[in-house]
What does this fold into?
Amino acid sequence: MKETITTGSRAEILIQALPYIQKFRGKTLVVKYGGNAMINGDLKAAVIEDIILLSCVGIRIVLVHGGGPEIEAMLAALGKESRFVNGLRYTDDETMEVVQMVLCGKVNKDITSLIENAGGRAIGLSGIDGGLLRAKRFRAEGSPGGDLGLVGEIEAVNTEILLPLLDAGVIPVISSVARGTGSDAGKSLNINADTAAAHIAAALGAEKLVLMTDVRGLLRDVNDSDSLIHRLDRGELEQLKKDGAVTRGMIPKVDCCTLALEHGVKRAHILDGRVPHVLLIEIFTDEGIGTMIE
It folds into this structure.
């Protein structure tokens, strides 16, 4: 009897997933991969499995990654102290060399290799390759010289690099470093990975933007982890910001979701990357698990 129930439960999960597979087949999902899910080995394996499964059922996946902890570790190993301005990393020439080395080299190729070794098809890219991401220097009040050093603000996304890969069923794995424009032509600029994912999703006209983070999603009460908001629209989102329910590190993530939605992305999701197989649960089940904004 126990085996019958288990088998039935498994079948029910597959049946529930079917309409979502049919709905999203051929559509583009841009996933920002970061946080604890990049560090914990079990979570990393679960994310890779999710990505490959989504690709195998015909969903076009673009994976954009960060790498803050790896950058911090390398800077510490080199004896260089990180400097932040209003919570944002100031990126001087030396730090930019480390960012490019860690993100475009080690982290990007590690993720690409994991996907390939697990049976997927992936190509690792940086925003520099083929002018995929072009950016101007970001200006911020209160920072030296009025900016954050070699931190960029995206001006353009070259989708011609991505479309042939997606058409061929290949997963582009993108590190968030851009090619500078104007006075920064020839330089590399450091880009926030959430922001890069939002701009790429907008440029591709993606069905979904998915941000994986280390919190459950948007909370109606920041002091109550059980007050998760499962679904809301942009109007409600703006009201939450006014009410102070969106604070600290969640503000830039929400702004990225808004940017993507304003430029044609159908839905944005903020998911807890600490939950194994969170991507599949959110996309292929009726209940979902994180916050969906539309």
Observations:
- The longest strand covers residues 147-157.
- Confidence is low (pLDDT under 50) at residues 1-5.
- The radius of gyration is 19 Å.
